[in-house]
């Protein structure tokens, strides 16, 4: 009975076989390299999208709630925003909900803003002085609206930095005039940069007092009153968020005389993070699955090339078995070859994928990132795929009859 070949010798023979056919080994490895690089890159991009959305939501503050008109179904079906939230609702929330600290009602329109011979389409929002504190905005130049501006419905405006740069390039913008719907507004302040929020550039916007918005731009509906786009609500502290959400919902149900389905929605930062996490998590999973298909194709390539290799090395296998090698030794050698090709390909592909993730993070606003655990899992997966698809060629090599193989010499 022949002795088992030491594992060290088996590994040495496997590496020798791979090095003697370097071009074939490299081409076999290429599918795994592409698959691993795809998985790492796509998962990193998906994670970056999740980080970006979560980062933007975190700037809202943990104790901020948004009250929006219409429920999810009506907002999804409707072309226009439902007019089910009015200024009186915002005032009632401030006065009657004990867990609420500040309330900032808002009306938002898309308008053309002009300054001399320059114009730009931007978001124009009618807001109150509480907006700065509730939404955590800061001023870069000038001042924000005062209670006197709100009560007097003055034609004053605060611009986002991007809009100010487009309409009032160079010089000092404070005190200059812009026009919205043929109404002249004096620029009294410039917001500090806030960045994008869920795809909308908050720096490319104009802000006017809410009373001015109603009297000069949006108007007051004779049926509904002063309809709001949404209301930003600041709970007294983070622990009061759940209570505030419950109390606001009950108050609006009473005010709107709702018996069945709500005509409003109250959303917290936690709710938004949950929704965004679900969406971006699904996106990351889908991108990872697309990359995994490349890994699967690479594994099929390993099996195909190794079947060819078995066919070409029939004489070598027959000679080894004739001088005492056991079937398990031959099986192990081909499995080692498959494992080395797939693992090395996985390592190279992962390095390429990490480089791509770093490039995306450096060259785009997307904070693409991926953890070492994900990289290690991908390399381990590629090695497992190599072993799985290497079994069939290895078994075929191990089952060769040495007498039949030697006849081909």
From TrEMBL:
Compartments (UniProt record): Cell membrane
Domain MacB-like periplasmic core stretches: 25-250
Record keyword Cell membrane present: yes
Lineage: superkingdom: Bacteria
Residue span, ABC3 transporter permease C-terminal domain: 289-402
GO function terms (MF aspect): transmembrane transporter activity
One Gene Ontology cellular component annotation held by this UniProt entry: plasma membrane
Family indicated by similarity: Belongs to the ABC-4 integral membrane protein family.
The protein, known as: ABC transporter permease
UniProt source species: Synechococcus lacustris str. Tous
Lineage: Bacteria, Bacillati, Cyanobacteriota, Cyanophyceae, Synechococcales
């Amino acid at each position: 009975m022949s002795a088992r070949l030491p594992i060290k010798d088996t590994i040495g023979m496997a590496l020798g076989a791979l090095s003697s056919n370097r071009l074939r080994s490299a081409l076999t490895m290429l599918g795994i390299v592409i698959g691993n690089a795809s998985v790492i890159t796509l998962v990193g991009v998906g994670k970056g999208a999740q980080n970006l959305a979560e980062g933007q939501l975190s700037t809202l503050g943990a104790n901020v709630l948004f009250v929006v008109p219409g429920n999810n179904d009506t907002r999804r079906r409707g072309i226009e925003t439902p007019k089910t939230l009015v200024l009186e609702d915002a005032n009632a929330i401030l006065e009657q909900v004990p867990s609420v600290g500040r309330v900032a009602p808002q009306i938002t329109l898309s308008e053309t803003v002009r300054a001399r011979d320059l114009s730009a389409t931007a978001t124009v929002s009618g807001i109150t002085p509480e907006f700065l504190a509730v939404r955590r905005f800061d001023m870069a130049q000038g001042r924000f609206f005062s209670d006197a501006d709100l009560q007097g419905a003055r034609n004053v405006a605060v611009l986002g930095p991007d809009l100010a740069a487009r309409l009032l390039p160079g010089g000092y913008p404070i005190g200059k005039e812009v026009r919205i719907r043929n109404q002249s507004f004096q620029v009294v302040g410039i917001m500090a940069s806030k960045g994008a929020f869920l795809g909308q550039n908050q720096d490319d916007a104009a802000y006017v007092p809410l009373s001015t918005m109603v009297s000069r731009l949006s108007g007051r509906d004779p049926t509904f009153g002063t309809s709001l786009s949404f209301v930003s609500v600041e709970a007294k502290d983070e622990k009061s968020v759940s209570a505030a959400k419950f109390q606001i919902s009950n108050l609006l149900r009473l005010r709107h005389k709702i018996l069945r389905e709500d005509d409003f929605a109250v959303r917290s930062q936690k709710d938004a993070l949950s929704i965004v996490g679900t969406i971006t998590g699904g996106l990351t999973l889908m991108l990872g699955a697309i990359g995994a298909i490349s890994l699967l194709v690479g594994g099929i390539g390993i099996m195909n090339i190794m079947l060819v290799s078995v066919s070409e090395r029939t004489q070598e296998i027959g000679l080894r078995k004739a001088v005492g090698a056991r079937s398990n030794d031959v099986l192990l050698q081909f499995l080692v070859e498959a494992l080395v090709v797939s693992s090395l390909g996985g390592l190279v592909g992962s390095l390429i994928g990490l480089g791509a993730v770093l490039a995306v993070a450096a060259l785009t606003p997307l904070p693409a990132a991926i953890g070492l655990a994900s990289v290690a899992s991908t390399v381990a997966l590629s090695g497992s795929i190599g072993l799985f698809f290497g079994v069939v060629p290895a078994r075929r090599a191990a089952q060769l009859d040495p007498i039949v193989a030697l006849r081909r010499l």
